[in-house]
Design a protein that fits this description.
The complex is a heterodimer. Helix content of chain A is 49%, strand content 10%. By secondary structure, chain A is of the alpha/beta class. In chain A, strands 2-1-3-4 form a four-stranded parallel β-sheet, sandwiched between helices. The longest helix of chain A has 16 residues, at 9-24. In chain A, 27% of the residues are buried. In chain B, a hairpin with a 2-residue loop joins strand 10 and strand 11. In chain B, the strands form three sheets. In chain B, strands 2-1-4-5-6-7 form a six-stranded antiparallel β-sheet, covered by helices on one side. A six-stranded mixed β-sheet of chain B has the order 8-12-13-3-14-15, sandwiched between helices. A three-stranded antiparallel β-sheet of chain B has the order 9-10-11. Chain B is of the alpha/beta class. Classes of the chains: A alpha/beta, B alpha/beta. Chains A and B meet through strand 2 and helix 3 of A and strand 14, strand 15 and helix 9 of B.
Chain lengths: 194, 323
């Protein structure tokens, strides 16, 4: 059994879409009927995800001790240093993750290169950058720059939300090379699952 | 009879019994559903707990050890009620140890220099009895029952039904049976046989599917086990998934009202989901879920999920049927 830890339900939906695409492209040899939801833990927020005293982690600790969970993957947003939260920015995010893993003290292999994926800025930012029709995105990006959106709210959620309003099922370009690192981690994680 | 207060098993250690070499589990509640893959030891776990709670003297220990073998074998053997048969069944369990928050119990068949003796320990008491001098007399405690996956024999249903009659709750059972099978108008014991009324005629329960026998066994024994314990193997056997909520509602409500600790096993996802749904609806936080599985070293391990963990795991659609 494996477990993926994410911040929220949007992250879960995205990971499931990506996993389904990996099955479609035959990079993952799993049944199309697999319920990926059962492998994902939504922690509710980045704060919760990086908090070792969360009740969910107590449960998972027990499941690891019993040998039920053998591999894990943590996925979260780096977010913006401007927000001045102690775990924001790539450096702080990494430090907070190190502290989490140290405190959890799980008796399974946790190697950052395989078991951690931090989105630069955030998932929305990442997805908007990788959608098809890049010229539209670039145009959109110039517009937000012009409107100083980042100064009002230093992340790209308004743009991503607008995009999702227009396209509830956005066709992300999963072939984009920027998905490769996350794909490799997911393939490694789910390898051998029946 | 058990004490009304604090009689629930909360934790137990089991050694040298069937697949349990050295096993511990803690955190059990009033109602506990057990899941795990085939042959992992779900029924054996319930048997170990059953022996622990039923061990109050030499003959109650003999009876429960005999009974667990008899229940498992009753379809395969032609039973003769002879001392020799009783001894054979009893000695089938030649080693047992458990230590719970209720009591410590152990049993061992010792053979030294051709002399065979039985060594019993329960609580602070210890007895060693020469096998030739042992009286194979049964002492079954009335408020502790173990229902196998097919349900009780007629005789046992009749005995348990009298507990419902004593509480004047026959109508409750009749209403319930009607929900399970709309053709059934009433249940009665006629000519010492459990019978259901259909289209004005009473028919023996053997004329119905397995589900009715299992359901009757569960509901009647819940009443019989007031202030005691009830163990139900494969509780959803023969019961359609659309009726599971109704069954769980009865188990949770009656066990609470009559102070019965329940342990039940299942293989079914529908049964687990129904348990979570009904517990949440009734806001019954005295329930737990117990998952059994083996670790990489092949050792048997178990994990008790308290209410919050269980409800959350089911909501997140996590695999709860074992690993």
């Amino acid at each position: 059994m494996v477990r993926v830890f994410v911040e929220g339900s949007d992250d879960e939906k995205f990971i499931i879409k990506l996993l389904q695409d990996l099955i479609k492209s035959k990079e993952l040899e799993l049944s199309k009927k697999i319920n990926f939801k059962s492998y994902i833990n939504i922690m509710g927020s980045k704060k919760n995800l990086l908090d070792d005293v969360q009740s969910k982690y107590k449960q998972v600790t027990k499941e690891i001790e019993l040998g039920e969970i053998k591999k894990v993957l943590f996925i979260f947003d780096c977010d913006f240093e401007l927000d001045d939260k102690k775990c924001n920015g790539m450096k702080n995010s990494n430090e907070c993750f190190d502290k989490l893993i140290n405190n959890l003290d799980w008796n399974i292999e946790i190697e950052k290169s395989k078991h951690l994926h931090i989105f630069n800025k955030n998932l929305d930012y990442f997805l908007v950058e990788t959608i098809n029709k890049k010229e539209c995105y670039e145009h959109f990006d110039r517009l937000t720059e012009c409107l100083d959106v980042e100064k009002v709210k230093p992340n790209k959620k308004p743009i991503a939300n607008l995009y999702r309003d227009l396209y509830p099922y956005p066709q992300f370009d999963f072939k984009d090379d920027r998905f490769r690192p996350l794909k490799d981690k997911l393939i490694d994680l789910f390898k051998g699952i029946k | 009879m058990q004490e009304k207060e604090n009689h629930f098993i909360k934790n137990i250690e089991i050694k040298n019994f069937k697949c349990f070499e050295d096993f511990k589990a803690e955190g059990f509640g009033r109602v506990n559903l057990i899941a795990g893959k085939n042959n992992v030891g779900k029924t054996a776990f319930m048997e170990a707990v059953y022996v622990n709670v039923h061990s109050q003297d030499v003959n109650s220990i003999f009876s429960v050890l005999y009974s667990i073998k008899f229940v498992r074998e009753q379809l395969n053997i032609l039973f003769n009620d002879t001392t020799n048969d009783k001894m054979k069944f009893f000695e089938n369990t030649n080693n047992y140890f458990s230590d719970s928050n209720i009591r410590k119990v152990s049993f061992e068949v010792s053979k030294i220099d051709g002399k065979k003796s039985y060594i019993f320990e329960w609580g602070d008491e210890k007895r060693e009895i020469n096998a030739r001098d042992f009286s194979y007399d049964f002492n079954y405690l009335p408020n502790i029952d173990f229902i196998d996956n097919f349900g009780f024999a007629d005789m046992h249903i009749i005995e348990a039904y009298s507990s419902i009659q004593r509480k004047d709750e026959e109508f409750y059972l009749n209403n319930l049976l009607k929900k399970f099978d709309t053709r059934i108008d009433a249940f009665k014991i006629i000519d010492e046989k459990p019978q259901c009324k259909v289209n004005g005629e009473y028919l023996e329960i053997i004329e119905f599917g397995d589900g009715i026998r299992h359901l009757l066994s569960i509901v009647t024994s819940l009443y019989k086990c007031e202030n005691g314990y009830l163990f139900i193997d494969e509780m959803d056997n023969g019961i359609h998934y659309t009726m599971l909520d109704e069954l769980w509602k009865i188990i949770l409500e009656v066990s609470k009202k009559l102070n019965v600790q329940v342990f039940a096993t299942t293989h079914s996802k529908e049964c687990i989901e129904s348990y979570a749904r009904v517990a949440e609806e009734l806001e019954d936080k005295e329930i737990t879920f117990f998952k059994l599985g083996k670790n990489q070293e092949g050792e048997l391990k178990g994990m008790v999920y308290p209410y919050d963990w269980f409800i959350d795991s089911v909501e997140q659609e996590q695999e709860m049927r074992g690993w």
